[in-house]
Amino acid sequence: MNNPTFKIIFVEDDQDLRESIVQYLEDDGISMTAIGTAHEFISCLDSDTFDVAIIDVGLPDLSGYVLAEYARLKTDLGIIMLTARGKIEARVQGYLAGADLYLVKPVDMNELLAAITNLAKRRTERSRQTDS
User: Fold this and answer.
1) 67: DSSP letter
2) Distances (CA, A) of 15 to 11, 21, 132
3) Total domains present in the chain
4) For residue range 7-33, what is the model confidence (pLDDT) as tens digits?
C-alpha cells in the first residue's frame, strides 16, 4: 500500500503471531512497537505516542478490554481489537471498552493493513486540524 510512516503499538502474547504480523506490516512501511504483555503496553503508552494500538484480548496479565479502556482514557489513538473471541458478546464488550474496530483471528493481513491505514490517517488529520 506504500503508506506514510505510522507509529503502531501491538500487544500480542503469541510470539510467532506477533512476529509474523510485525514483519508483514513493517514490510509495508509501518513503524511497529511490538510487545507481549499488558504491563509493557501501559508503560509504552505512558512514555511514547502512537497512531494506532492493536490489542489482543486474551493477554496473560490483564484483559485487552482493560487496555482498550486505559488507552481510550489516556490517548486519542485508534484502537483495533485483534482476538480469537468472535462471539457477539465479546465484540460488543470490545466496542464498549473503546475499540474502533474488532477483528477476529485469523485476520486477513490486507484488511488489517487497510484498517490501520484508515485509523492512522484519520488521527493524523484530526491532529493537524487541532494544531492549526
Assistant:
1) H
2) 10, 10, 41
3) 1
4) 999 999 999 999 999 999 999 989 999
